[in-house]
Amino acid sequence: MAELVARAGKARTLLTTLVMLRRERPDLFDAATGIGLWVLFGAFLIFAVITDLQLVVVGIILGSIVALGAIGLTLVYGIMKFANFAHGDMMMCGAYLAFFAFISGGSIGPLSFGYGMILAILVAMISVGVGSVVIDRLVYHPLRQRGSGVVVFAIASLGLAITFRALILLWWGPQPQIYVTGIHPAWDLPFGVKIKPDQIFIIATTLFLIAAVYVLLFRTRIGKAMRAMSDNLELARVSGINPDQVIMWTWLIGGSLAAVAGVLLGIQSQLTPDMGFSLLLPLFAATILGGIGSPHGALTGAMVVSIAQQVSTSWIDPGYKVAVAFILLILMLAVRPRGLFGMKT
Predict the structure, then answer these.
(1) Which pLDDT tens digit goes with each residue over 101-159?
(2) Closest CA to 165 of 282, 263, 284, 277
(3) Which neighbouring-strand residues pair with 199?
(4) Residue 3 confidence class, pLDDT cut points 50, 70, 90
(5) Residue 317, domain extent
(6) Per-residue b or e along 140-166, where b marks 16 or more CB atoms closer than 10 Å to that residue's CB
(7) Considering the domain boundaries, does residue 116 fall inside one?
(8) pLDDT attached to residue 23
(9) Mean pLDDT value of segment 311-334
(10) 80-94, 185-199, 220-234, range with greatest mean pLDDT
(11) What are the CA-CA distances from residue 339 to residues 31, 286, 334, 335 (Å)?
(12) Does residue 32 form part of some domain?
């Protein structure tokens, strides 16, 4: 009992020290928490690899899907400064639009699908991207004109999410859908790891699109305009940047990435009307963990959240793994609200 009281006293002293450090030396506290989080995540990754390498691989696959959605989410927040609660359902719409456009037949090498899937992905990207721009003009643009607050934008996006889900339920019903039926064997890799060719396609597609987003943001004029508007809207406006054009490109890119993420999620598992909603919490956790407004932070956050969720199934029921994302979200907000790569506020 005495030992327990002593440990509680040490913990209280450490917490008091951290609170004082955060109040008196915020710069030092920020640097310390940043280094501490990186050390903690590195140690966790080593522990996860030792515990179950197969679960880590599955986490990387799901993290690739979450990363695409989180990058779109962080771009929208970085430009328009509101949490888009319809982003997960935009992913779901992309998955179902690809299902509608998908023409099965044949396959590309060891993949379970043929070129019809590539065409379906392009149809989903264009449809959701353009649809996002149209919705912005019909819903969000009038709100911006009236000077509405972020709460109004968030509620509007929540209403859109419910609408998207209802439309999918009316058209396809609640039963799960699948792109390609049949059994698709996995490849045996060293250390007892199994992975399907479709899952390699998921990772490769994510890496390609992330590289494309990086080039767009840092090597093109519209990308530089997006970053300038994210940093300072008024200064960007004075510099001659057209905010409406930047917003249009933001929705186009974010919607396209969400559509691809939804299709990849459908390839990995199956299509259901609540597939986007079930990913909403991991999406926000990944975005906040990496830092709002940081695309590479969204990728890092998505990998940490997804691997943590999958590895946690070694000890808890898989149905509760979403709680892991919630815990990581709360801890990051409490310790380092700006995330790993976010801008100081």
Answers:
(1) 887 767 787 888 888 889 999 999 999 999 999 999 999 999 888 888 888 988 999 99
(2) 277
(3) none
(4) low
(5) 53-335
(6) beeeeeeeeeeeebeebbeebbeebbe
(7) yes
(8) 58
(9) 79
(10) 80-94
(11) 12, 9, 10, 9
(12) no
263-290 residue pLDDT tens: 999 988 889 998 888 888 888 888 888 8
CA 152 – CA 150 distance, rounded (Å): 5
In 10 A of CB 85, how many CB atoms? 22
| Count of domains observed in the chain | 1
Q: Is residue 58 part of a domain?
A: yes
**186 or 282, higher pLDDT:** 282
Quick one: tokens of 42? 């590195």
User: Is residue 280 within 8 Å of residue 113, measured between CB atoms?
Assistant: no
127 occurs within a structural domain: yes
**Which token pair is 61?**
């696959």
- Domain with residue 79: its CATH number is 1.10.3470
pLDDT for 17: 58
Q: What is the Cα–Cα distance from 92 to 69, expressed in whole angstroms?
A: 11
Query: Is 227 a residue whose pLDDT tops 50?
Result: yes
Q: What is the pLDDT of residue 260?
A: 94
Work out the angle at residue 227's Cα, subtended by the Cα atoms of residues 122 and 155, and round it to the nearest 5 degrees: 70
